[in-house]
Amino acid sequence: MNISLNCWNEYDQLKSVLVCSPSTLDVPDAQTATDVQWEKPVSQKKAQEHFHNMVDAMKEHGIHVIDYSKHLSRQDAHLSHQLINRVFTRDLACVFGNTLVPGEPGTSMRRPEYIQSHFLFLDWFGPERFKVTANNNGNALEFGDVMVLNKDAVFLNTGLRSSYEAVERMKDQIFQAGFSEIGVIDLPRRPDTLHMDMNANVAAADVLIAKSYMRYLPVRILTETHDRYLMMEEFLFRHGFEVEWTNDIKHTVADINFLNLDPETLLISTKANKKIIRNHPKLKKKKLIEVEVDELEKGGGGIRCMTLPLERQS
Question: How many domains does the chain have?
Fold first, then answer.
């Protein structure tokens, strides 16, 4: 896999991204959806169509899109096709600078896809760039809870699916990758706060959009030598970000869960409330590429959840 792992932020031009096509299984009714913690029933035929909408939009933007399911062995593929959450690749790992760090699932239902993808990553990138056992002894860490803000700072959540114990175990890897500060927030443990990227997202090099309740939450600041607290807005301001609070807007998954394709362009769902993005003066001229992915969003995640950046041009 000829990819130079390189991600120092959320907004530089995206060059390579990992995805996974949806499962072949339908989620046939509301009760089944509730039992597997999805929002609504899903037709996988329609989900496949919406997946290709997203992939085609990225390819048309010149992005190398890798569907990891196509690289699995026949035995692994037989299981993988039946894993309904496998489309949410963001959680599997995260590129910090030039290092790919493995995640650890917060629910046993997702463990097989982590194991399968991690052995692929090990084969593709080697043990120096992907330390497959680095989080073996840690608790849950799903990377929908992580934002790489810039070359100095990482912002992450230890909520429903990620633990502070896992952060403690992996923080040295982040510092060794070249970052100097980690901000840790602890979101309420509810379905709508499952991950950080359902509540906040980087929309530009100096603007982060966030749900308004987050302004009341302190952030624990970790460096190699210090440990202290700041409020969220102060932490982000120190690293060059303004915060666009969404105030009393009633949110759907689509609103904040977008993907930066380059500094001028966002890939968003057709169901996203564009007023949220356009409200900040620095975002008014952003190019918005809209794709229909609502059948995929019924699984409880959006476009950011379904894309794992491997390489951005810094």
Answer: 1
Residue 175: CB atoms within 10 A of its CB come to 17
What's the CATH code of the domain at 296?
3.75.10.10
Q: Is residue 6 situated within a structural domain? A: no
pTM > 0.85: yes or no: yes
Q: For the segment 83-126, what is each residue's pLDDT rounded down to a tens digit?
A: 999 999 999 999 999 999 999 999 999 999 999 999 999 999 99
> Tell me, what's the pLDDT at 138?
65
| Boundaries of domain holding 166 | 13-313
